């Protein structure tokens, strides 16, 4: 069995791989070796994607993809990312290759980042930072006073590992939390359900919830269902006091409609970690809007990420060896080209 890894991943995980596979014969193959076309399984680690985006690929990532495409025996690919919305993954799925993700590896960190963005917007940190730059003592009083988050309505789209952690955090802040999830995940029920302090609704009920939302938080995977889910019509349904937080994927939101709403004050503000096209164009109006905070797709980055992803992949490797179902397997119907 040939396992395709980067040199960095091979050095980091080599001993653990040996422990997992035991007496199973295997060989580690790296993209820079002349063993093209011989990978049976592959692990796309963070160092492989590097600073690549969906549309701008580094030479290292292209070399890795080349080996994947030239490996007729390739049966399984695991990615460090929580989603499988890069074009390579539908291509692999169409070949019958199993694709798994590292969903959940950085869920806690992403939830912390989303909460940080919310607090920065709610407490008007950018206004305080600007005053600090001017050496100006300007307490947030009167109309400038921030609104208390307690009692506000948070609508979380997506109830996977990130959404679940966010719901707990916002519950601690005494917010009214509603989550939107696929109907199949709630047993196909048509009505809203309440579990503890969290209210659950289906995607079919999203339009009814938007006019009552103070915080729209996107934490869903990119699928045919969620692509441009928050379009111009739904943005217009939000009240002008509402904020939008996106730690999902940029394509979930109609970005031009969002910019227009933010620019004319139809929305109170936004914290954005992802964008329709990355890197975000330097000419984008989003950079200069005073009610927008931008994060360069870094909400999930932390010093614990590599180890967390490694544990998920090694667990799946053990499952693969004994023929057990893999964790975080991507259903072909959820692949987005």
UniProtKB/TrEMBL annotation:
Gene Ontology molecular-function annotations: NAD binding; oxidoreductase activity
SUPFAM superfamilies membership: NAD(P)-binding Rossmann-fold domains
Tree of life domain: Bacteria
Residues that span the membrane, as ranges: none
A Pfam family recorded for this sequence: 2-Hacid_dh_C
Domain D-isomer specific 2-hydroxyacid dehydrogenase NAD-binding: 116-299
Keyword S-adenosyl-L-methionine: no
Family matches, as InterPro entries: D-isomer_DH_NAD-bd, NAD(P)-bd_dom_sf
Keywords assigned by UniProt, alphabetized: NAD, Oxidoreductase
Protein name listed in UniProt: Phosphoglycerate dehydrogenase
